[in-house]
Amino acid sequence: MQFVKSLYIHNTFFRYIAVLAACFVISYWVPFLYPIAWLLTWVLCALFLFDIYLLYSPAKTITAKRSVPGKLSNSDYNPIKLEYTSHYNQKLFLEIIDELPVQFQKRDFRYRDSLLKGENGEFEYAVRPVERGEYVFGNLIVFASTTLRIIKRKFIFQNGEMVPVYPSIIQMQQYDFLSISNRLTDLGLKKIRRIGHTQEFEQIKEYVPGDDFRTINWKATAKQSNLMVNQYQDERSQPVYSIIDTGRVMKMPFNGLKLLDYAINASLAFSNIALKRHDKTGLLTFSKNIETFVPAVQKVTHLNIILEKLYNVNTAFSDSDFGLLYGQVKRKINHRSLLMLYTNFEHISALRRQLPYLLAIAKKHVLVVIFFENTELEALIEKNTQSLQEIYHQTIAEKFSSEKQLMQKELHKYGIQTILTKPEELTLKTINKYLEIKSRGLL
Prior knowledge:
The chain is 37% helix and 27% strand.
């Protein structure tokens, strides 16, 4: 049965059959072709058996494997490598099929190659998942045929391989590398001018020319009979929280990715940068209930906890309870912290309903409300109109777009920091706002 299951007829064989059939048909009018057609038929049968012998007689045949990262990165192109080797004594023609996870909905994966005896081959392709979760790769199938191309032998490797898709690890590593090399400006992050002094005291030292005279410590000067100044350092270990709204407003998709996933990817990259800058990072997700709460901790290993929590975050179909969020922040976050709130408001009335809770949170903490531009509306606004109906649609789109600007001004009026951004620019603007707040000593 294994022999029967692995034996396939090559497409070229049917072309041979078509030629023989044509010879038999023509022999009706050209009789001398009839014995030639039968001779060719017996030759084809002999070649069929010989091709089977060539493919099934060797003890060592073909080896192949698929190399997949331990974790795939959501919304990024992840490289998958196929490696294969031929141990046959003749040239082989290979047709390789990799059974991709059902989430990709791709059923036409096919790669062709040819190998000589003992030759190695490899092929690399990339997959871009747009949902977190478990992705199961099926069989790696290789069809081998000889130069005769009459039959194909099927080989199966690596039955079923599950790979988890996590929030964008590639994006996090990219920003991490640039922050270490001080090249964040390469991705559009602005350099923020530092204003004034940070407030974390380091030591008292003797005055040297060039020190700011406003930092002179008069009590220490009197004791030492020499000018002494206070020295400050950048404030560290300040609590920073990513707060993600998982309600229905975050289900809206852009470029195949939900707003929630944009927020999750940005939170991971932002938390990594904050930890590298010696701040404490935490996580809170909510909708009708508080779903996840991770207290702010200043440990590099703490990022793994945040990553695992973000892996399991999903949206709900209900409206989010900002009153519940205010109660959780008041009970659990006791120190003044930077709160990055990822949510979305499509109407100014929706913002005004939640504004009392946002103001209550902002009294004790530095609150940054992050919401999204509707890029589909922007494309509609820029489109040339051809009819009265299109003018009407464009007018409504402009109204919704202007409401986003009004929401931003409304929050600024009450002293709440905001980020209004396109989904694909979220990570950049979030990190930039964090660096700005740190540089200006607002926390």
